[in-house]
Amino acid sequence: MLQDTRHWPLIAPLPSYGRGRERPGGRYISFIHGDRLHDIIITGENGTIDGQGDVWWNMWRQRTLQFTRPNLVEFMNSRSIIISNVIFKNSPFWNIHPVYCSNVVIHHVTILAPADSPNTDGIDPDSSSHVCIEDSYISTGDDLIAVKSGWDEYGIAYGRPSHSITIRRVTGSSPFSGIAVGSETSGGVEDVLAEHINLFNMGVGIHLKTNVGRGGVIRNIRVSNVYMENVRKGIKISGDVGDHPDNNFNLNALPVLKDVKIKDVWGENVQQPGLIHGLKNAPFSGICLSNIHLRGSPGPRNLPWQCSDVTGAAIQVSPWPCSELTSRPQHSECSSYF
User: Fold this and answer.
1) What is the mean pLDDT of residues 286-295?
2) Could you list the residue range(s) of the whole structural domain that residue 21 is in?
3) Residue 47, CB-side half-sphere exposure with 13 Å CA sphere
4) Which strands make up the sheet holding 73-76, listed edge to edge?
5) Is residue 252 part of a domain?
6) Whether 248 contacts 153, CB under 8 Å
């Protein structure tokens, strides 16, 4: 990649974000970038696309960035995309970012970045639909896969959700999250299926995250058959995560998070099995946990489940979760699930 950032081209901020994700104003164009395209194929015999992100990471650390760093790959307003059999390495910022896209298949890719590289998310479907991510390995400095849909008042106004997202047979490691939704979810996120996931040396295994001012509805999230090892938090569902683009967000724009089903999860050396914190004026509902067994790490550092402002149910979960998740699913929002 061109390393003279003084002459790196700029493009407009995404309308669902209102500004660059890191800095106000525009953003540096992605290394591979396309807008309003269709029938796109990026493939190879496991050849490497190296973003040479060190110079950008150092600018971020030294706080000398003028605009938001470039992604390695970004397609906007596009459809029928296939990305396969390529190694993506050392992205300056997010690695693969389909935004306002549909019919996207990403499979048999490897995504690599040092654990201390800032904001190097692996794959971030954003206000996109009918996305399939499978059979891939991701090891980065931020979330492996994060489903997004816009930022606060800008995402609410743009109003384009992410939906029909399938994630399967993905393995990886990161100091942040494995499978994430958020935190930018203002357009809504619906119908996400993640299954057969293996996570090692993680900050959080499964992470749903939003915030006051986000608005949007997160619902029908299904996660199953997950193995995790050496993880700080196994499951985290939180309503107080993520920053804001400016001070113009609406404090009354509360997110709705409901109908989350997580089952068949095993973990070793998990310091805290779960933390679920809804919002006082918008409790999370229909959080259904089944057949989840997360063993603690050696020593005294282990923490119990923590819950607040949430309703749902749990069966065959160890350690046993919070009292807010009843053990009587036949009388709860989870009765049709168990």
Assistant:
1) 97
2) 5-331
3) 6
4) 32-35, 73-76, 96-99
5) yes
6) yes
Q: What is the dihedral of CA 145, 147, 152, 153, to 10 degrees?
A: 140
**What total of structural domains would you count in the chain?**
1
Residue in the structure block whose two tokens are 């980065």: 140
- Report which residue type is found at 178: G
Q: Which residues are catalytic?
A: 142
What is the DSSP-derived secondary structure letter of residue 330? G
Residue 321 lies in a domain: yes
Residue 1 pLDDT grade (very low, low, confident, very high; cuts 50, 70, 90) = very low
In a domain, 14, yes or no: yes
- Cα gap 318→115, rounded to integer Å: 30
Q: Which of 100, 83, 94, 97 is nearest to 36 (CA)?
A: 100
User: pLDDT tens, 265-284?
Assistant: 999 999 999 999 999 999 99
What DSSP element (H or E) covers 112? strand 110-112
The two three-digit tokens of residue 104, written as one number: 């996207």
Predicted TM-score (pTM) of this structure: 0.97
Q: Where are the beta strands (DSSP E) in 182-255?
A: 189-209, 217-238
Whether residue 233 contacts residue 307, with contact meaning beta carbons closer than 8 Å, is answered with: no
